[in-house]
Backbone:
């Protein structure tokens, strides 16, 4: 029996499904967890959830929600990661997109589980900064500035173009998140474990988790603007990205779990990259909307947007953020098409352009509550 058919056989005969989630106290992981807990899909009736957390009080709170909270030392605690992964059918890794050692420990644990003929699947979380260019530093520029990366075009599946693209980028200039993507695709193939990477663009909206509910990119700009009194944009802000609402994204994780527990085979490993776009924006638009809503709500003295250099932006966002990450995450062009999600999983995002535009006011209010 092949590795894939063995996995499908195991999945189709499951009476219960054990799901492990990392990053459950975070923005993505917390929202995914609450979505799964409240799911009306078939898997929910017999699903058991475990979450790895760093504090006992977090584990205690999760236990009141029907989740087994396991306290561990963090992602460097690879022994615990491997052991816990070996005890679960599906591992949803939302804790870090760039911690390669943690990803390997999870894959090794799933491989241990698979040896017993049990279901062993990974849903790994990544981001589309891996596909962004470097318009400021010039480290990398796509020859085709109109390119939109697709996960389900026939030639993509046949020639594994997304894997090849990331592999090529790594050979010329490594980037930790992309390094981890490539590793997960290659190592899962070697181990015979099914790995699926959900690669998301800008995620917006207030989360639904029990802990952190704030996003990263727009919120980061808001915090800096509140401190400085004006909103910045790197250069002209011409780079375009996609976006997805956190609730739509959580529903995609739910759909994937549903398909996996039903034994439906989904592209994985070398062809297992799933994009999650549901709209797009420019960085100039993001900064202008942050400024407009911040001024309207009385949080900023004006709706001014100042163009700054990459180094100036780095100083505003904190010296701990690498310049390359800042450039890829706040200035690059990265466009994608979520074909797999829509065609294979039946994903149908419900949030609209209006929801994106209205999210800036809601996130401003959440940021101000945090500051208070």
Residues:
């Amino acid at each position: 029996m092949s590795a894939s058919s063995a996995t499908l056989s195991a999945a189709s005969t499951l009476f219960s499904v054990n799901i492990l989630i990392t990053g459950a106290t975070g923005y993505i992981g917390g929202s995914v967890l609450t979505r799964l807990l409240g799911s009306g899909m078939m898997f929910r009736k017999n699903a058991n959830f475990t979450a790895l957390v760093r504090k006992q009080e977090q584990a205690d709170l999760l236990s009141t929600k029907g989740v087994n909270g396991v306290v561990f030392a963090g992602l460097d605690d690879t022994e615990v990661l491997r052991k816990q992964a070996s005890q679960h059918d599906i591992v949803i890794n939302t804790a870090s997109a760039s911690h390669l050692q943690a990803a390997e420990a999870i894959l090794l644990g799933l491989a241990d589980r698979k040896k017993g003929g049990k279901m062993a699947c990974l849903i790994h979380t990544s981001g589309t900064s891996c596909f962004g260019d470097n318009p400021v530093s010039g480290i990398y520029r796509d020859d085709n500035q109109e390119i939109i990366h697709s996960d389900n075009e026939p030639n993509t599946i046949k020639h594994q173009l997304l894997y090849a693209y990331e592999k090529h980028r790594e050979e010329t200039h490594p980037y930790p998140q992309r390094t981890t993507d490539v590793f997960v695709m290659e190592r899962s193939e070697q181990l015979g474990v099914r790995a699926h990477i959900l690669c998301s663009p800008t995620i917006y909206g207030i989360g639904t988790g029990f802990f952190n509910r704030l996003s990263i990119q727009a919120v980061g700009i808001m915090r800096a603007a509140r401190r400085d009194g004006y909103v910045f944009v790197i250069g002209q802000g011409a780079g375009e990205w996609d976006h997805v609402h956190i609730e739509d994204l959580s529903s995609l994780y739910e759909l994937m779990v549903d398909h996996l527990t039903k034994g439906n085979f989904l592209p994985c490993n070398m062809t297992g990259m799933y994009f999650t776009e549901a709209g797009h924006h420019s960085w100039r638009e993001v900064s202008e909307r942050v400024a407009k809503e911040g001024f309207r709500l009385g949080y900023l003295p004006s709706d001014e947007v100042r163009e700054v250099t990459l180094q100036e932006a780095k100083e505003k966002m904190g010296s701990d953020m690498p310049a390359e990450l800042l450039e890829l995450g706040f200035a690059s062009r990265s466009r994608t098409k979520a074909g797999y999600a829509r065609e294979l999983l039946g994903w149908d995002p419900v949030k609209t352009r209006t929801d994106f535009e209205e999210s800036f006011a809601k996130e401003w209010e959440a940021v101000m509550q945090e500051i208070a």
Remarks:
- The radius of gyration is 20 Å.
- The longest helix spans residues 353-371.
- Residues 1-14 have pLDDT under 50 and may be disordered.
- Residues 154 and 160 are 10 Å apart (CA to CA).
